[in-house]
């Protein structure tokens, strides 16, 4: 067990700081091993499949995922439909950081939804519905008997 030596230099060597996580212990070791695995995949030009749950998109991790896609670091995304919905909601209105210990009943009475320690006003969902419903109406009117609407086609239509 060994941690990063911050006294070695007047500035932090972030590469070696992350590398040191493998020997710190507790969850840091798992994080360090994950970093090593990611580096191995990148160095071998592997095709990277990336899967996540919808709540991840509600958090600031959305910006990391966007970066990974934008720079073609990941090649395939596997996500449930809720992840698409959460992505659009996050684009339409802000989500806030709260506390895991906030009273859920009190939050709900005040029109606030909680996703872990994230706080999402009800209005965010209303904005999403206001944006989505005209698009769905247009899809139904234009496509009633023509073809099957696949999830990927729906995502393309939504933008």
Give helix % range.
55-70%
Give the total of beta strands. 5
Q: Provide the structure class.
A: mainly alpha
The total of helices stands at: 8
Stretches where pLDDT falls below 50 for ≥5 residues? Answer: none
Write down the Rg. 21 Å
Kindly state the mean pLDDT as a whole number?
Answer: 90
Q: Main sheet: which strands, in order across? A: 3-5-4
Beta content: 5-15%
Report how far the terminal alpha carbons are from each other: 48 Å
Outline, from the CA principal axes?
flat
Tally the structural domains. 2
Give helix and strand order, one letter per element, not per position. Answer: HHEHHEHEHEEHH
Give a short account of the largest sheet: 3 strands, antiparallel
Chain-wise SSE layout:
Blueprint: H1 14-20, H2 26-43, E1 49-52, H3 54-58, H4 61-70, E2 76-79, H5 81-92, E3 96-97, H6 104-109, E4 112-115, E5 118-121, H7 122-143, H8 151-158
Parallel strand pairs: 1-2
Antiparallel strand pairs: 3-5, 4-5
Helix pairs in contact: 5-7
Overview of this structure, please?
The chain has helices at residues 14-20, 26-43, 54-58, 61-70, 81-92, 104-109, 122-143, 151-158; strands at 49-52, 76-79, 96-97, 112-115, 118-121. It is mainly alpha-helical and 159 residues long. It has two domains: 1-45, no CATH class; 47-158, no CATH class. The strands form two sheets. A three-stranded antiparallel sheet has the order 3-5-4. The protein has a two-stranded parallel ribbon with strand order 1-2. α5 packs across α7 (122-143). The longest helix is centred in the last third of the chain and has 22 residues, at 122-143.
